[in-house]
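Section: Multi-chain targets

For targets with more than one molecule, the full set of components is provided together so that the structure can be written out for the assembly as a whole rather than chain by chain. Components appear in the order listed by the source. The example entry contains two components.
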Amino acid sequence: MSIASAPHRHWKKPPLIKSAWLRWSLGLGAAIYLALAFGTTEINWTRVWEGIPRGAKFFAAFFPPDFVTRWSEIAEGIAESLWMTVVATVIGIALSIPVGIGAARNIAPAPIYYICRGILAVSRSFQEIILAIFFVKLFGFGPFAGVVTLAFATIGFYGKLLAEDIEDMDPAQAEAVRSTGAGWLQWLNYGVQPQVMPRMIGLGLYRFDINFRESAVVGIVGGGGIGATLNTAFDRYEFDSAAAILLFIIAIVMAVEYSSGYLRRWVQ
Amino acid sequence: MATAIKDGTKVWQRRERGAQFATWAVYLVGVAIFVYCWDLISERTIWAFALDAPAQAADLAARMVPPDWNSIHGLWRPIWDTLNIATLGTVMAIVVALPIAYCAAQNTTPSTAFVRPLALFLIVSSRSINSLIWALMLVTIIGPGVLAGILSIGLRSIGFCAKLLYEAIEEIDESQVEAVRATGASGAQVTAYGIVPQVLPAFAGISVFRWDINIRESTVLGLVGAGGIGLPLNSAITTLAWTQVSLILLVIIATVVVSEWVSAKVRHAII
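Its structure, encoded as tokens over all components, is:
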């Protein structure tokens, strides 16, 4: 029979990248890059070696962490971080609504569209921490500089998502409201807002979560909040207090994440 | 439909009376919380310093132009370090995230009672601590330098990669796994031929996406001593060399834009 005489072939798994040439050159490129990267990276192994017992001490500090010695500073820092998060999220979202509406292609005229897109691009291209350095220079040390930083970063995040959401909305509903003779603000309030609201509330809660995490960082450069306390704890090698602060941050982030997930489901 | 009587005629309203009051109550509580927090922050702000910010900003901007192009020769090395921190950190994160994601996914985890909660806890703790805080910690432990940067980027990214990856594993098509199992494949073979091919594109996309974020994050790690372009930025700011600061900021923007472009291209090619 002709079937039996067919040559015996093995099945092979199809590769992720189909072109063999591309696959091999990518592999070779990666190998060369890794060799270069490891070859040129300067690592002071004796210093790393010295640090290992210190690292062990740090991890030992988690069992148990010291909440008591620096309690007043920790409580103060956490509270300040929370206020900063609330104020920055509210101001940031309030400012990002006009920017976001202006950056939506389908409802904004061309010049306003480009200006608002420009604002969003500037806000998104810098790290919070770089912004914080400059705002601390401008507004002085303390939580206000942190609030300005977080609010500014919120505009880029929230405004962009709001603009994209408005661009994706159902034009028929907005058209229906307009055909009743509604003014522009009424049209926005009854035709556009109900369509984007559920998702935007969820994103607002998500941004609250991000802002809290970032508020722990802006303190390192003088922007107020728990970051300053954490930085001091590390500088003094008080690992047990630092461990307590880190556990606090993890606990609050988890709590905010869970409750925001719950709230989002309730809203939608 | 909600209506109100106005001058003897029915007028349409958006909400019923009760619902309207409830909405107002929610707004009232929200505004009260905001005002309270604002007041506490305002107490700790020296407004005299904050109010002259526009003058300060104009002054700073005047000092920052033109950028000091001659100092670019000293920046190639920090840029290369930044790239290495981001790339090697991402590689490390992926290697560690794979087993964690495997243990965290509902359909592949060895035990839901013990291993899965542990894996989820690892993911949450890695995600909730910013890479700058990891760097702060590692610089005091293993000393300043590129290694601290690589490790902090890696530790921060483990949670992100593992979370997205385990969600991808949970969304796979079970019938393909079933089909491979029906041929008599062993557990490892089921993973290699039933699960891996399904999550490989998602996996590649996640890695490139995280690499892009890591480029951004590694530009600032130097501020706490963990290597990269943040080191010259920090020294330029502390020595008030504003023309160098503006050059470094331009370099950072260029790096971020290029990495975003590369990442978008690669992800487009994969998906």
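Chain A has one domain: 70-267.
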